[in-house]
Amino acid sequence: MNHNEPLRAVALKYDGENAPTVTASGEGSIAEEIIRIAREHGVPLREDAMMAALLSELELGEEIPPILYRVIAEVIAYAYMVSGKVPVIKDKKPV
Predict the structure, then answer these.
(1) CATH code for residues 8-83
(2) Looking at the predicted structure, is the pLDDT value of residue 56 above 90?
């Protein structure tokens, strides 16, 4: 991260069926609060300044664009892994 740029954080929600959506986004003290709340609730965090910059351009409630599906899928897989969870595919056994 460039030390001249403010801290930036973006929170995503994924329901397992639709594309992930932006639920929170901010810089500086707002980013610190997003991170604090995520930690308080055991939400896995991943530091990636470039991804945060891209996602921060989206509006609250907006779905991520298809061009970011693969990289966000990797982030979701990482979140499952560090949480010790197994994703469930609807109408199928856990994978």
Answers:
(1) 3.40.1690.10
(2) yes
